[in-house]
Amino acid sequence: MNTQKIGKLICVGTGMRMAGQMTPIALSHIETADVVIAAVPNPFARKWLQGVAKEYICLLGYYSDCEVEGKNRRDTYRRMADTILEHLRAGKTVCAAFYGHPGIFACISHMAIADARAEGFSAVMEPGISAEDCLVADIGIDPGKFGMQSMETTQYMIYQRKLDPSSLLILWQPGLAGELSLKRFDTNQARLQILVDKLARDYPLEHEVILYEAATHPLEATRIDRLMLKDLPQARLQQITTLVIPPAYTLQIDQEIVDLLKATTIAPLADAA
């Protein structure tokens, strides 16, 4: 017996620039859902969503929770997810829209989908064009050439992580580096210096790094600023800034493995019956 409840959740991404970056399936869900619940910071994108959606609810005002004593971003994200679930439980088809990709640095969508499925609702996520996709295109890098490591900046700082400096490294949200209270959306030079000092375990201080910010509308310029690692604490960082660290060293052949591979005889495939 089918016990799936009435009501459906679809999490979609609007892309970074929305115009031209929104997939047809995301647009279809936004246009046909009973309600669109969105966390999209760009004012042009919000205005467009309001004009297209049957009903529109903006979640950005929930960030004022961080000004309440004892609350942090996790509380805010939980309340955002609960708002999505409230409309889902009312039997509506809910489209939750997030800028970029709905599953990348968007814990609200993951929380809402997990809770919805646990309660017996249909819940899916549709992919969107992310900041990483734009970064690869704008800077002109191929993650497959040297390999790529990708992690959130504060996570890298507070955990013991092994880096491969012969690979591309992307650190997300350096503008929040070392912010442990989950109540602020900035950092300071002292915390950035700690970040630089830790990176200096694997990279020369004179190594060139890149500060990247994807353009979010046609009139906005993409930011690609190159500087030395040691100068990072004095750089201008925003919430949307990404730190890109190209390889500092060349790849080294593992000759033992190469020799083993050369010595391996591959048996021919058996003839089809």
From TrEMBL:
GO molecular function: methyltransferase activity
Domain of life per record: Bacteria
Domain Tetrapyrrole methylase: from-to ranges: 8-224
Protein name (Swiss-Prot/TrEMBL): Tetrapyrrole methylase domain-containing protein
